[in-house]
Amino acid sequence: MLVTNPIKFSLVLIQILCVLGSCQKQDKIPPRINVISPLNNTSFQIPCVVQVEGEVHDNQSLSRIEISIVDENLVPVTTAISQNISGDQFEFNEQFIINDRLLQSGNYFVKVSVEDEEGNLNSSYTSVFLSEVTRELLGIYLVSSDQSSTNLSFLDDMGNITLKSTISGNHKVSESNSKHQYIFLGTDISGISLETDFYTTKWEVPFLSSTYDFFQDVNKSKDKDQLYLSNGDGVIRRFDKNGIQIGGYIADFQNWFAHFNEVDNYVMVDTYSNLFTRWITVFNKSLGIEYTRKPITGEVVEIGQVNNSLCFVLIQNGNDFHLAHYDLNTNNLWIDCSVQNNHCYNAQKKGNYLYITTDDGLYRFNYNNYQMLPLIVNFPCSQIDLEDISGDLIISDAQNVYFFNEQLGIYNSFVTTDSVENVLVYYNK
What we know:
Elements: H1 4-23, E1 32-37, E2 42-45, E3 48-57, E4 62-70, E5 81-84, E6 89-98, E7 106-116, E8 121-131, E9 137-145, E10 149-155, E11 161-168, E12 171-177, E13 182-187, E14 191-195, E15 201-205, E16 215-220, E17 227-231, E18 235-239, E19 245-250, E20 256-263, E21 266-272, E22 278-284, E23 290-296, E24 299-307, E25 310-317, E26 320-327, E27 332-339, E28 344-350, E29 353-358, E30 361-366, E31 371-377, E32 383-387, E33 392-396, E34 400-405, E35 409-415, E36 420-427
């Protein structure tokens, strides 16, 4: 017994060692990769076709290959091509069509990964430079309305105005989103996002009855991935590009929201409890909670960012309008200039200038010297937008649409058949 047991133990140990030895990989050499095309640092202009050609080798047997194009964070920007392979050599020749209009210019990599039957893995990265799709003006959308319907028309570069869609209800708010290719129309009975290929409904905002007009104001987020809607029930709702509500801001009890805008990490809102009691309320954008508020006299027409922490607030108070400024860092609000016996309607910042549409004409506030001057008098105008490629301002007096810059003045005009309530500049991205 004393002799037999050690012998049995030794035999068992030998068997275990044999099994463990057989489980170890006999092949520890990874496959080799040779990319023939594209050459390192080749440049491409989107849209483009990237031809990926090469071969892989293994000292025993290949198992799988995957090819893709990735960004600098190794995130794929194309669909990966993956396939099971065999043998000790494999040649590949694949095409990648890149037509994403939102891809930014920069360095990308053709990634080729290959694995052999023993699980040895190797990857190669060939650097390529992709130039983004050139941003281009597609045209200008004109929004008009009567008491029962809202029309969306398109002004092309030839001066043709074409009706694209009609929805039910009187127009309240509208916004374009070139990045995600839709137009949002809010009426007194519905809120609809229209895609701009066939003008079918992309998504809708559920309508709720409220004390005031359900749609008070609309704005895009600065990254253009979200749409903010100020509603008459005292809530600003945030929607993603697919129309899914992802957050918002709620007014205090017996408070309601009107005009607003996103400014860096804050959302500034014209808040009121009645016709005479109003505040500029500042919310923390990410937390959705009120940060501070300042009392104002009059109704806010427009809110926007001047630079850094400085914001402008355009206020109509009775028959006069005021241009006020608010500093997010100091929480100070002050009025820089006033224009008497004149109503303002909209404002557009361009460089160091703020352009304001009024009953009397087009005004310009100069941030270099903090002076307000009328640029065009006896020219009642209401809507304004900036075409930021040419630098032209697009202005409407309801019946006409004008192109304006300070070198040429009004150099182009188009007569409309409907009363224009908004102009929306639209690009390919």
